[in-house]
From TrEMBL:
Localization terms from the record: Cytoplasm, Cytoskeleton
Principal subcellular localisation of the protein: cytoplasm
Name this polypeptide is given: Calponin-homology (CH) domain-containing protein
Native organism taxonomy: Eukaryota, Metazoa, Ecdysozoa, Nematoda, Chromadorea
Gene Ontology molecular function: any one: actin binding
GO cellular component: actin cytoskeleton; cytoplasm; focal adhesion
An example Gene Ontology biological process: cell projection assembly
Annotated keywords: Actin-binding, Cytoplasm, Cytoskeleton, Repeat
InterPro entries membership: Parvin (IPR028433)
Length: 86
């Protein structure tokens, strides 16, 4: 992200506590949001990503791929059905 956007995200290099990891992730997600969706409410947040929500993770990755025009071909008209177990 830093290299692609030409920015520096000020976060500690190594964070061992869960709270520290969440704070670091929050700073990174905020930076991503400012760059890839500055005018829209993103469909992901640090809490969803930290909790391993696969839809949120895919959405942020796809937003970054599209924003930075990654040299990969994404399939068109893809839909995802999510089943939640009780």
């Amino acid at each position: 992200m830093e290299k692609l956007a030409g920015i520096r995200i000020e976060v500690p290099e190594v964070t061992q506590s869960e709270e520290g990891q969440k704070k670091k992730l929050e700073l990174v997600v905020q930076a991503v949001n400012r760059i890839v969706s500055p005018t829209e409410q993103p469909k992901w947040d640090a809490e969803l990503i930290h909790s391993k929500d696969i839809v949120a993770i895919m959405q942020i990755l796809i937003a970054m791929v599209l924003h930075f025009r990654a040299p990969i071909r994404l399939p068109e008209h893809v839909s995802v059905k999510v089943a939640h177990s009780i």
